[in-house]
Design a protein that fits this description.
Elements (H helix, E strand, L loop, with lengths): L6 H4 L5 E2 H9 L19 H10 L3 E6 L2 E7 L4 H4 L9 H7 L5 H5 L7 E7 L5 H6 L11 H14 L10 E3 L2 H7 L2 H4 L4 E3 H11 L1 E8 L2 E2 L3 E2 L5 E7 L5 E6 L8 H12 L3 E5 L7 E6 L3 H10 L7 E6 L11
Parallel strand pairs: 10-14
Antiparallel strand pairs: 1-3, 2-3, 4-7, 5-6, 7-8, 7-9, 10-11, 11-13, 12-13
């Protein structure tokens, strides 16, 4: 059921950003079978619609740091008092009935989230250690657990566990060559097992593979790039929110811009990024970091792959005490 804003709950939320009013309370509460898009109305812009409502006496507006907010609602207004609730459409049920996916259905559940698989490859110095225990995979890459198992097998196979202290491992030439520094080589004869495991994974080269709903992508060295969400000031108190780095995760910038235009009731643009072939940046007018982040997560992009930077100078909202 869509979120409802009424006199019993609105007071503690006020003032509310105009975009939040639109995306959280208006769009989800469209009449059954209808889709709400301010761009297709006679007002064309959310600000004009709200100012018309203010002129009609339904609410009061306030400009806060260059952004329009609803300050209060006139619940005693005749139109409010005589309002008759209507059936709110369940977008998910209706669109599935028509053979289409709703906003969340289209983007999938947690089971369909984009995943990042971490893979490790032995360095030249570690290759002999892996070879001695016959450790190999079809791809030449190892998961972290597989790498741990290789070292444990090597330690047990060479009987390197310290009989007096099982936490310690006696160092042989293979372990010294692969895991110790030059300074440590002549100073250490044993080393804690847990720290040796950490050393092993630090000395291996990290590769990552992004698994999209349509299948895995190529394995690449290093950590995967993050989708970057940045909000900056533009022309005084105005702000613009931008996102880039969508292409590696199969997110269409043009489609995302269209969704943002509807959800935020703000203008959007899609521009090429100089110096990055095929890369595009989506911009939406206003401070929409929260909305954009939520939308990316609906596109199956996990939070760990989203980098957020608020450079707008916007003061953090004060938390109201109960």
């Amino acid at each position: 059921m869509a979120t409802v804003l009424d006199s019993a709950h609105a007071t503690e939320l006020l003032p509310i950003n105009a975009s939040t009013i639109y995306s959280t309370y208006l769009v989800p509460n469209a009449p059954r079978g209808q889709e709400l898009d301010i761009k297709k109305s006679t007002h064309k812009k959310l600000a004009k619609f709200l100012k018309a409502a203010e002129k009609h006496g339904l609410l009061k507006l306030k400009d806060i740091r260059g952004e329009l907010h609803v300050k209060s609602f006139n619940w005693a207004h005749k139109d409010m008092a005589e309002f008759t609730p209507y059936a709110v459409g369940s977008a998910k049920k209706e669109r599935h009935a028509d053979g289409e996916a709703d906003a969340l259905g289209q983007h999938g559940s947690e089971l369909d989230m984009i995943r990042v698989i971490e893979l490790l490859k032995p360095s030249n110095a570690l290759a002999p250690l892996f070879s001695d225990v016959g450790a190999q995979t079809d791809t030449g890459y190892f998961t972290r657990q597989q790498a741990r198992t290789v070292l444990e097998d090597y330690i047990k196979g060479r009987q390197l566990v310290d009989a007096q202290n099982p936490r310690m491992v006696k160092l042989d030439h293979r372990l010294c060559d692969g895991l110790l520094t030059k300074e440590e080589y002549s100073k250490l004869s044993s080393y804690p097992r847990d720290k040796l495991q950490a050393r092993l994974q630090e000395r291996m080269t990290l590769y990552t593979q992004v698994v999209l709903p349509g299948g895995p992508t190529a394995v690449k060295i290093g950590n995967p790039p993050c989708a970057e969400v940045v909000c900056e000031k533009k022309m005084g108190t105005k702000a613009v929110t931008r996102v880039s780095g969508l292409e590696p995760y199969g997110i269409d910038p043009s489609a995302l811009a269209k969704e943002l235009r509807t959800v935020c009731a703000s203008s959007t643009t899609v521009d090429p990024i100089l110096g990055k072939k095929g890369a595009q940046m989506v911009s939406v007018q206003g401070h929409h970091i929260a909305v954009l982040t939520k939308l990316l997560e609906q596109h199956r992009l996990p939070e760990r792959l989203i980098s957020i930077a608020d450079k707008s100078g916007r003061a953090k909202a004060k938390t109201k005490k109960p």
